[in-house]
Design brief:
Layout: E1 2-6, E2 15-19, E3 29-39, H1 41-47, E4 65-73, E5 85-89, E6 98-102, E7 106-108, H2 115-119, H3 122-135, E8 143-146, H4 152-163, E9 167-172, H5 175-183, E10 188-191, H6 197-204, E11 210-215, H7 221-228, E12 229-237, H8 251-256, E13 259-262, H9 270-283, H10 285-289, E14 297-302, H11 306-315, E15 321-325
Parallel strand pairs: 8-9, 8-11, 9-10, 11-12, 12-13, 14-15
Antiparallel strand pairs: 1-2, 3-4, 3-6, 3-15, 4-5, 5-7
Bound molecules: NADP nicotinamide-adenine-dinucleotide phosphate.
Length: 328
């Protein structure tokens, strides 16, 4: 099969097409003929050598999400059969013509969506469900602040939180990105390059603060996040793009009874991911089928142009998701 491999850690041009054997699949796995594969920021970190894949995952083929058709199924597979169209969360190896995946990490392609749209879903939908709703315990009627509101994660979090009855505030790095965030349903948008989010959230919430923050920035945002959390508020970290070592005033945690948490999805067990898949299929897949939640694909690149897709993501010029197609 053809695969896009990381030939060595480095710039986007280290991504090259190579011939690889079609992967083996286990008794609880299916083999998917990949039509489209989503791109995520962690793929960039992996390409640069800063995000090693967990043991057992393909070491040099990136890709955390795919959509395509099941072509073979292991002996223990119960739900799926050859010919089924699925999208799936994978631990790596998504940038390839074939990918093996535990059957429990597959979900049906939502009604009305094509493979490119379906491939844009798993990584951000699993991450947002797990962090905003499971860890952050966001409830209907509560408020959510999302940093990086125009990212793939940000657009997903905005749509899900709005669909489930929360008020959504986002930060983004340009006026154009703020307009995009509004189009995703955000109630209030803050251009962090021209506005101070602490002042704006104080003003917008009448100094009450927000109930949950989804943060991928870390660094100097951390103390400011604690400032704008409401009493009993929850700060959920999913990355630290500005920096992981920070100084915070812990008294604010005690005074407002705050919770600081976070997680990384990729190294978690198959059972953990299966439980998220169940929740998504029950709570979110009907909203995708009805069009209440929509995939946001900003750009599609043929697989052999994976390097260009990474250049676009690293420029942060995109809004929403970037997808590779093996079918152009
Ligand atoms: N923990 C997990 O399990 C998990 C899983 C998936 C993704 N993630 C993380 O979630 C984040 C979003 O992922 P994604 O794939 O949706 O990313 P993405 O679409 O590439 O978006 C990232 C956005 O973050 C904003 N940003 C803010 N501060 C930044 C900084 N210091 N450096 C670079 N960008 C910055 C940029 O928009 P502005 O122009 O508005 O600044 C950029 O467009 C990433 O950090 C990723 O690593 C975590």
């Amino acid at each position: 099969m053809k695969a896009i491999v990381i030939t060595q850690p480095g710039a986007p041009d280290v991504l090259q097409i190579a011939e690889r054997p079609i992967p083996h699949y286990g008794p609880d796995e299916v083999l998917v003929k990949v039509t489209a594969a989503g791109i995520n920021r962690p793929d960039i970190f992996q390409r640069k050598g800063n995000y090693p894949p967990p043991p057992g995952a393909p070491q040099d083929i990136p890709g955390l999400e795919i959509a395509g058709t099941i072509v073979e199924a292991g002996n223990n597979v119960k739900r799926w059969k050859v010919g089924d169209k699925v999208c799936a969360l994978v631990t790596g190896g998504g940038y390839a013509e074939f990918c093996n995946v535990p059957e429990s990490q597959c979900l049906p392609v939502p009604k009305g969506l094509n493979f490119v749209e379906a491939a844009s879903l798993p990584e951000t939908f699993f991450t947002v469900w797990s962090n905003v709703f499971d860890r952050g315990k966001l409830q209907p009627g509560e408020s959510l602040l999302i940093h990086g509101g125009s990212s793939g994660i940000g657009a997903t979090a905005t749509q899900m939180a709005k669909a489930l009855g929360s008020k959504v505030y986002v930060t983004a790095g340009s006026d154009e990105k703020c307009v995009f965030c509004k189009s995703q349903g955000a109630d209030e948008v803050i251009n962090y390059r021209t506005q101070d989010f602490v002042i704006e959230i104080d003003r917008m919430t009448g100094e009450k603060g927000v109930d949950v923050i989804l943060d991928m920035v870390g660094g100097s945002y951390t103390q400011r996040n604690l400032k704008v959390l409401a009493e009993e508020g929850r700060l959920v970290m999913i990355n630290t793009m500005e920096g992981k070592n920070v100084e915070i005033d812990l008294s604010i945690v005690m005074l407002k009874r705050l919770h600081i948490t976070g997680s990384t999805l990729r190294p978690r067990s198959v059972e953990f991911k299966a439980a998220i898949a169940d929740s998504l299929e029950k709570n979110i897949w009907p909203l995708l089928a009805s069009g209440k939640i929509k995939p946001v694909v900003n750009a599609v690149f043929p697989a052999h142009r994976a390097a260009d897709a990474h250049i676009l993501m690293e420029s942060s010029g995109h809004t929403g998701k970037i997808v590779l197609s093996f079918d152009l």
